Input
Amino acid sequence: MNNGLSLAGETICLQLPGMNQIKGAFHFFGTRHGIGAERLLVRLRLEGQVIQVKQVHGDGILKIATDIPDPPTEADALMTDTPHRLLVVSTADCVPVLIHDPITGAVAAIHSGWRGTLLNIAGKVVREMALQYGTDPQSLYVAIGPSAGACCYEVGEEVWEAFEKRYPETRRLRGTTTHLNLTDWNRRHLVEAGVPHHRIFTSGFCTLCRPDLFYSYRRDCKPGQPITPRGKQQMESGVMKCP
Output
């Protein structure tokens, strides 16, 4: 079950109880009714600086030491051990992954689409946290938010073949169709990187199945329509170290 924060009867963000029980960090997953990360901090009376960068569907990881990168930087994962830095990613079918190390205080936010998942961005972030902050993967807690579920996320043969080539254990779902379960792939990569199964929490929501709660690029955008700019028809999710 997920906890939701509502405004005027609409759920503006979700929190996973398993992640909430761990002190030292604030996290949220946005919905289509979200009010934006900065306004959310104000509403919750939390001190923080929102950090966002240009996402490019890769496996780039950016360490945030103090302030917002200048000039703007391209990356699909952010990490920091500095308090009051709200690391934010935007999604509309891709997988938002939020990580918290309660021992070192380090946190990370990941945008993992099929390309990032193929490149094992989640596992790479865990290893980079160990390198930069001395994180023990066994101590991590991870929340995986709403994304396109295996029920709806059918990909083309070229995408499926890319997964089969990199991960020979890939199996087709629903008979001969090529449905990818991005949540399970990210969970698998986290476990392979050393994160315990029982410390990985998932929302259980498919963005395509719930138009009342979530934006979905696949469901809402017309064929040939370009991907919308960051912050439009997308949902913000984030995590922040709180001393």
Q: What stands out?
A: The first helix runs from residue 17 to 20. Residues 3-241 form a domain with the CNF1/YfiH-like putative cysteine hydrolases fold (CATH 3.60.140.10). The mean pLDDT is 89.
